[in-house]
Amino acid sequence: MTTVSSVVQQFVVGLKSRNEETRSAAARELKQYVSTELKEVLPGDVTTFMDEFNHQIIEMVSSQDTSDRKGGILAIGNFASHLNLCNKRSSLTFVNISFRAE
What we know:
Layout: H1 4-15, H2 20-35, H3 43-62, H4 66-80, H5 88-101
Helix pairs in contact: 1-2, 1-3, 2-4, 3-4, 3-5, 4-5
C-alpha cells in the first residue's frame, strides 16, 4: 500500500526536475491524481496529503533554485481549481502561498 508521504514525494521529485518535460508530466499527473484518485480517499488522508503538499510547495516557492520555484508554481496552478477538496485551512494556506510567490 502506498503511503500519502510517498505519493507526495513522488510528485515533488517530478515537479522539482530541471527537465521541463519531466516537470510538465509531473504537473499533469498531479492534476489527474487530484481530480480523480484524491476524491476517492478518506477525508483524513486528503487532509494529510494537502498538509504535506502545502509544506512542500512552501519550500519549493521559497527556494533559490529556479526549477523548484517553477515546480511550486505548477503545483499551485493544479490545485487552484480543486480547492473544494480541502478544508478551509488548507485553502487559505494555498492563497497565502500564492501571494508569497509573487
